Amino acid sequence: MVAYLRYGILFLLLFTCASSCNLFTENNKRNIPIHFDLEAIQKRGYINALVDNNSISFFIYKGRPLGYEYELLSLLANHLNVKLKIHVTSGVNHAIEKLNNGEGDILAFPLTVTKSRKELVSFTRPHFHSQQVLVQRKPVEWRKLTLDQIEDSLIRNPIELIDKNVHVITGTSFQQRLDHLSEEIGGDINILTDTSNAMSESLIQKVAMGEIDYTVADRMTARVNAAYYPNLDIRTVLSVPQQIAWAVRKNAPDLTNAIDTWLGEIKKEPTFMVIFNRYFNSPRTSLMRMSSDYSSLGGSRLSRYDELIKGGANELGWDWRLLAALVYQESQFDPSGESWAGARGLMQLMPETAKQFGVTNRDDPVQSIKAGVKYLKYLDSLWAKTIEDPEERLKFVLASYNVGLSHVVDARNLARKNNLSTIHWEDNVEFFLIKKSDPEFYKDPVVEAGYCKCEEPVQYVSDVLNRFEEYKQHITG
What we know:
Blueprint: H1 2-30, H2 38-44, E1 46-51, E2 59-61, E3 64-66, H3 68-80, E4 83-88, H4 92-100, E5 106-112, H5 115-118, E6 122-123, E7 128-130, E8 132-137, H6 147-153, E9 165-169, H7 173-185, E10 190-194, H8 202-209, E11 214-218, H9 219-228, E12 232-237, E13 242-248, H10 253-266, H11 270-280, H12 283-291, H13 306-316, H14 320-331, H15 351-356, H16 365-383, H17 390-403, H18 405-417, H19 425-434, H20 439-442, H21 455-474
Parallel strand pairs: 1-4, 1-5, 9-10
Antiparallel strand pairs: 2-3, 5-13, 6-13, 7-13, 8-11, 8-12
Helix pairs in contact: 9-12, 13-14, 13-16, 14-21, 16-17, 17-18, 17-21, 18-19
């Protein structure tokens, strides 16, 4: 009897586990969104934005993050009173999956609004309207031909696409449009699909380079790329005007409403059109950015001082992009820049620090990087005595570089006195660094350096680390 009872319990456990596992699997298959709306995002303190990898949405230029989506997202984050965290991803289907499983809170792609996508996500108010166009290559030596000769070689009637190979990224609205177009013109278009994780502009580049003959893109993106590749023709329209919008999880109505309200307000202000024109109606500027060695769109450099920075990073044992993020935060790569407090040079050295590390000319990039690295090594060696975790120690080093060692030590002493961790930054030492502008805390006997308006170093740590993450997504290590 006991044996039967044991087998019965075992069967019940296995059945329960199997049912739970099947339910979990079914939830994954159905891509059920997590519940995480505006209130939870604001409580957490930051919004995760998924952006596309292209020349319009988000890129790095001379060390600075830029892009239509990026600039608007920055304004949105300020409006919601949260920080912005950017996550670059490719492929609409993959991005929707990330959105719904919580890896992102907003999908800031230039998405075409479709009925099938509405089943998976909620769309914000549209940003603008666009049309899908055929991207094709002008004939060889087109500059020597007449306009009529060029026109005769190009497809202008969609019927001419019958039996032609047209490449699109799988799962996109462009693939859907070609399916419908084949039905409308009464003949088969050979639709060849690329990987769903391919970059959105990769096929446009392949057309320009002669690797494929045709692809489809939205007119806005195509126009920007045509400025860079003048051998492209983008004048053949394949669709009616379509809405372009961002997406949010369907079960996040408060976030959707907040974004819609904000979009309605920002589109009435000159700021919106300034940003729009900067990326969609300035072909010369777009060409300059796309062809620059200092752009993640066409190069792999952040500044003219990359080699100096790489040498310093090797000495520190850092990823060079981390040191580059710090240098940008300090000086925006301007070797003669000076702060209100009298710090100068790429590493913004104060006179006392420069003297301590043998600098005779703070405007000299070589001396500035060399001394800044020595100072960072000194700070790291001090904090290494009590903070073993290198990721946590880095935050203490960055804060000390920005505001001075003594203020961070004070914050640590306050954390110890108030029974919080002295080896963890967020919500512990960071918390008391901010409190050093409050008399209750800066007059405490354990505080030696006194008053400090220390929101800046706290923000500094966050900005450097966020910029480092942005650099890692776009710049080769």
